[in-house]
């Protein structure tokens, strides 16, 4: 039995990183390992957090492993305390999630204290280059990278970014596994009723709304007259970290009636509602590393349109199980119309996606890490 500690956010903290850590811990636990998550008591100071809440509204989950909220991201005393706690557990491996430069001092110092005890340290790096770049980011990221023995990334893009920052870093690109901790799809009519929608053709834009995710491109794509004539609708489900008013102005400017917005953080229990009503998922990102939304869509066998940025195209076979588009709204419109031009496309692409699921399984991912 291998004793593993994951350092990173977990329940009651919300978000994709937290979901990933819990799914990873679950996979390690189910394969017979001793697993614990050392999480944050404070992840972001309020003035730095653009959302409504950092915690889940509801949390009915029970966990077969321990979650210890020890780290305050702006209190160095807790960094030392968390590191000493981890050392006291005598783990075989410590895996530290890293996703933005802000956490480099905190996680880097924790890693440096643990490293002195010759404990195997693995960084799992979501992003090495921030989506919104700031002065000093590269130096902060490099500070953290040097503190671990080696790193795992979830895409080739991030691996290449790390090598650009510091070519001496040992790093291996794996993949973002498919989420397996969400409830299954429900009957479409039931989901439509829950969301107060009528039956129809729906495209889903899912997740937190930030500028780099290109929601404006998806809205412009929906202005194509053929899309309007076919009554194809875009459902936007996620909390706005940008001004919602900017997007509403664009919708009004284009005189669109085929856009439906749910400005809310979608709690885990409600995720199946939105995927159950959708025929197609769209990720029109302007920049990207990888996205948990692609793996969530794959979990539900929902075909996708992704833009040709970062690691997004790595999981799509163009025209077979989805579409890889430029960021031109006209090209996005073209692929939307192609998808809905023949009802067989949804069945054919969904089946093709389902054949890939073993390649992106948690078991495969954890086996690769333990090697």
Characterise this structure:
- The protein is α/β, with parallel strands linked by helices and 371 residues long.
- It has 2 domains: 172 residues, Rossmann fold; 170 residues, Glycogen Phosphorylase B (Rossmann fold), CATH 3.40.50.2000.
- Helices cover 36% and strands 18% of the residues.
- It has 14 helices and 13 strands.
- The strands form 2 sheets. Strands 3-2-1-4-5-6-7 form a 7-stranded parallel sheet, with helices on both faces. A 6-stranded parallel sheet has the order 10-9-8-11-12-13, with helices on both faces.
- Helix 9 links the parallel strand 9 and strand 10.
- Helix 3 runs parallel beside helix 4, helix 6 crosses helix 10 and helix 7 crosses helix 12.
- The chain starts with a strand and ends with a helix.
- The mean pLDDT is 93.
* Principal-axis shape: globular
Write the CATH fold name of the largest domain: Rossmann fold
Report the major sheet: 7 strands, parallel
Topology as a string of helices (H) and strands (E): EHEEHEHEHEHEHEHHEHEHEHEEHHH
- Name of the top-level CATH class of the largest domain: Alpha Beta
Compact summary:
This protein is of the alpha/beta class and 371 residues long. Strand 9, helix 9 and strand 10 form a beta-alpha-beta unit.
């Amino acid at each position: 039995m291998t004793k593993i500690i994951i350092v990173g956010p977990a329940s009651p903290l919300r978000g994709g990183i937290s979901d990933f850590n819990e799914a990873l811990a679950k996979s390690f636990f189910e394969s017979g390992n001793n697993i614990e998550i050392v999480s944050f008591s404070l992840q972001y100071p309020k003035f730095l957090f653009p959302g409504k809440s950092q915690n889940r509204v509801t949390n009915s989950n029970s966990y077969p492993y321990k979650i210890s909220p020890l780290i305050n991201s702006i209190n160095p005393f807790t960094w030392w305390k968390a590191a000493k706690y981890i050392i006291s557990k005598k783990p075989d491996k410590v895996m530290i999630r890293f996703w933005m430069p802000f956490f480099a001092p905190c996680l880097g110092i924790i890693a440096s204290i643990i490293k002195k005890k010759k404990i195997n340290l693995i960084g799992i790096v979501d992003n090495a280059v921030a989506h919104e770049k700031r002065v000093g980011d590269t130096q902060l990221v490099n500070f953290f990278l040097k503190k671990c023995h080696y790193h795992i990334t979830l895409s080739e893009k991030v691996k290449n970014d790390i090598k650009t920052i510091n070519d001496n870093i040992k790093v291996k690109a794996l993949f973002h596994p498919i989420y397996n901790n969400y409830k299954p799809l429900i009957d479409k009519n039931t989901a439509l009723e829950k969301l107060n929608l009528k039956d129809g053709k729906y495209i889903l834009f899912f997740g937190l709304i930030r500028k780099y995710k290109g929601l404006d491109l998806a809205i412009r794509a929906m202005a194509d007259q053929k899309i309007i004539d076919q009554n194809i609708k875009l459902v936007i489900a996620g909390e706005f970290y940008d001004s919602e008013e900017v997007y509403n102005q664009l919708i009004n400017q284009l005189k669109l009636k085929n856009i439906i917005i749910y400005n809310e953080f979608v709690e885990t229990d409600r995720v199946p509602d939105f995927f159950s009503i959708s025929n197609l998922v769209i990720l029109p990102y302007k920049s990207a590393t990888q996205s948990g939304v692609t793996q969530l869509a794959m979990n539900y066998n929902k075909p996708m349109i992704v833009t040709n940025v970062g690691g997004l195209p790595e999981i799509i076979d163009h025209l077979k199980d989805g579409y890889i588009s430029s960021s031109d709204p006209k090209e996005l419109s073209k692929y939307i119309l192609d998808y809905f031009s023949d009802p067989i496309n949804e069945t054919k692409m969904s089946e093709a996606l389902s054949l890939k699921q073993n390649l992106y399984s948690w078991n495969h991912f954890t086996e690769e890490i333990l090697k």
